[in-house]
Write a structure and sequence with these properties.
By secondary structure, the chain is mostly helical. It is globular and about 60 Å long. About 65% of the residues lie in helices and about 0% in strands.
Length: about 425
């Protein structure tokens, strides 16, 4: 059904509040460097959501309710694992890690539980995009200036070009901001396409590429290819093309991709001293040693396990590896799935895969009727999933704004309008 009401940029008090909250989480990492209390707002958010779920009358889709139940089961598995392994007896550490494990997922429900008028979230999305475009141009200006004047926004060189990091502490963390910006600017196309919007999106991709992170460059290529297939090529031509494709046609592309990235793959996942490789290997070892429930909250791969330096790290000899020693824990939480394997075992891993699959399926099914919201949801979920192979994307606060954005997509009236 076509939307007949006129959607305006209605900047009321509640929209301003949501704007501040969502962008607060987009820049929480920067704010935490300025003032330590900002590093705790994600835990506070998590507690608020839990209380609101417990004491408010909330109506969720069946899939959303099942994800909540699965999150509760995952927490139960973790607590039972703590009791079984006996590795962590400090209840505070367990509680902090529990909140850290579920906070990103619960941030989605904060927006979903909001009961506003029909067009509120459409107005919110348009305003979020307006701020995002303005921010994109600001970042682009500083990126250009940095090429000529050292203003402290460049990091070490990659591929012969110094990486841009804006006001973040490193290009990698800056790159994660675009997991939010790119889907946001894409989704806003549903309210009208214009040269200005297209240019803003292209500039955002350019700024993202200026981080010179391999993952960012790969995501940009994937995004552009999928965008062309989804919006540029006519559907009938795409069907004809797809009908002629055979599985073995893509084999040369896979071989080329592996060849091009072989050094990164070998470096990150096969070396004996690289953090990601070590975490993966010993995460699987922990899964085996503490089968089937894992070692419990705060024991392996999580932030709190690094803070109190888990006894497993000493047992595994991590003190001999750079960035994983007790006095330099830079890379001890540079993972996601090894943490899930280790702390929650086989049972917890199955639950987490279910949570991810059910959550993603729900988002895509609720936005399927609208091309741009569906595509924006698809790329946002894809960025996080692919990133989880080499980072803690489902546990870090930089992902909270993405989950809140996905909730905005689901709440809009446009998700029921066929475009």
């Amino acid at each position: 059904m076509k939307l007949v009401q006129k959607i305006t940029l209605n900047l009321n008090g509640k929209i301003v509040l949501y704007l501040i909250l969502i962008y607060l989480f987009a820049f929480e990492r920067v704010l935490a460097q300025i003032a330590l209390p900002f590093s705790y707002i994600d835990e506070i958010l998590c507690i608020v959501v839990i209380l609101k779920i417990l004491f408010s009358k909330n109506i969720f889709y069946k899939a959303e309710a099942r994800v909540l139940v699965a999150l509760i089961l995952l927490c139960f598995v973790g607590i039972v694992s703590n009791i079984s392994s006996g590795l962590v007896s400090n209840y505070f550490y367990i509680a902090v890690d529990l909140l850290s494990t579920i906070k990103v997922w619960l941030s989605y429900y904060l927006v979903r539980m909001s009961r506003e008028n029909d067009l509120f979230f459409d107005d919110l999305l348009k305003n979020l995009a307006s701020v995002g475009r303005g921010l994109t141009y600001v970042m682009f200006i500083f990126m250009v200036i940095s090429q000529f004047v050292d203003i402290g926004m460049l990091a070490s060189a990659r591929y012969g070009i110094r990486s841009f990091m804006f006001i973040f502490n490193n290009p990698g963390n800056f790159s994660k901001l675009f997991y939010f910006i790119i889907p946001l600017l894409t989704a806003d196309m549903t309210y009208g396409k214009s040269t200005y919007k297209y240019v803003s999106l292209i500039i955002a991709l350019v700024v993202w590429g200026s981080t010179m992170r391999s993952r960012a460059l790969a995501f940009i290529i994937i995004y552009v290819i999928f965008y062309i297939f989804y919006f540029v090529i006519k559907r009938e031509n795409l069907k004809k093309f797809a009908s002629k494709i055979r599985p073995w046609y893509v084999l040369p592309l896979i071989i080329i991709a592996i060849y091009v990235t072989r050094d990164q793959i070998l470096f990150y996942f096969t070396t004996a001293t690289q953090a990601r490789s070590v975490l993966l290997r010993f995460g699987l070892k922990t899964l085996k040693n503490y089968f089937p429930l894992g070692s419990g909250f705060g024991t392996f791969g999580s932030d709190i396990a690094a803070v109190h330096y888990s006894s497993l790290y000493t047992k595994y000899g991590f003190n001999a590896i750079y960035g994983m020693r007790s006095n330099e824990t830079y890379f001890l939480n540079d993972n996601y799935w090894p943490m899930i394997f280790g702390q929650f075992g086989v049972i917890g891993t199955v639950i987490q895969v279910y949570i991810l699959a059910k959550f993603s399926k729900n988002i895509l099914s609720k936005t399927r009727a609208n091309s741009y919201l569906y595509f924006a949801s698809f790329v946002a979920l894809g960025f996080l999933l692919l990133s989880s192979v080499a980072s803690k994307s489902y546990c870090e606060f930089s992902s909270i704004c993405v989950f809140m954005l996905l909730s905005v997509f689901v709440n809009t009236r446009r998700n029921s309008e066929l475009l």
